[in-house]
Request: fold
Amino acid sequence: MKKLRIWKLLLLGLLLCALCMALSGCIVDPDKNAIPTSTFKKFTPIPDAPTDTPEVVTPTPDPNLNQQSWTTNTPDPNATAYVGSVTPVPGTLLGGVTATPSTAPGTTASTNAVLKRGSQGDAVKNVQEALRRLGYFEGKADGDFGEYTENAVKRFQAQNGLKADGVVGSATLAKLSSSSAKTAPPKGTATPKPTNKPHTNVYLSQGSSGANVSQMQNRLIQLGYLYGSASGKVCAITESAITAFQRRNGLDADGVAGPGTLEKMYANSAKKASAAVGIIGVTLKKGDEGAAVRLLQNELRSFGFLKSAADGSFGAATETAVKNFQSANGLTADGKAGHSTLLKLFTGSVNPSTKTAAPKPTATPRATAKPTATPKVTAKPTATPNMYVRVTAAPNGTYFTLEKGMMGEPVKKLQQALKSAGYYSGTCDGYYGDATVKAVKNYQRAKGLVQDGKAGPATQRYLYEGDFPDQA
Reply:
């Protein structure tokens, strides 16, 4: 009986288990990958934004999606640039390339232009005319930059301390238009080559010779105080150039090139002359051209031997003038201006042309009665001091006008300079009389100054410094 109850309970348990299994097969299990409802938050609607300023929402990438770039406005390197309202910078192209302006044919190039072989136009013509004025170009200024023009440019550049490449750049153009541009030396004259280590611990005076003298003469030629080429010997013309350099550079003008003078001469601060005091080391003859010939012609004109203009061309008229000068001054009349002729012309006591000489005085008629003895008159007018006013040099070294009726050391210095230049043959007594007036007028006429016989600042600057000042 007891066993029967046990089996009934077991059977009932099995039935209950079967019933539970049957009921569980009808219920669908929730998706285990679905998001639980507890993770959702309550949605709050966003109020409407104003229509005039819409809000910009930056999307956030889903880490489970494929990665992609969210950077905006990144230009494509292969895409074509869009200019839009961008204003390009004048004178440039897009991409930073600078546009190079071109010069139309026949127009004048700017100061930054480069003229070289093959160039044409008015700019080339202007260069040719400037070279011709300075004695480097003898052909026609046709505006065609050919081989002849290139060679003329090279000679000009070499003479003026520029790179002799035959190309006219800004530096060459500036020098061509400058008052300090050096003129062409006479044909056959070599351009002086300055040495690197000049000797300054020497004293060079008239009669000195050797390599130191040649070096000094080359420097004086380079600075414009002399024309020609170094002779290696200090003559009177070289001495005059030393004196002119010393005066120009504020040194004691004694004509001796000592250490102080040479130190200043070889320095970069040495002042240049605008006119040479003479010509050395060359023989000028028919067919020569250049600034040295022009200087020779001016001297011949000042003494009445040449009537034509000083054009820098040694022609038949200049040759005849040289012959007449040589005959009048006891030299061999060969028509060639060599050392002796140039020395006499620039530093000697010159006999002027007989064509301009004063007429011979008429014979004095014989007196019937014996004349009384004429009292002896002294050379210097010291007996009449009221006729002359004594003057002294200005303390600051400036020039002041010297004229007839003055006396003193400034007048004596003026007479010595005129005598050294060959314009005064009297005694350097320091009295400004008629002979000094005449010498000053002759010098002014030769140099193109106002011929008033008064040695004003312009005349003195020209005489002492070899300068081209304004007339005064």
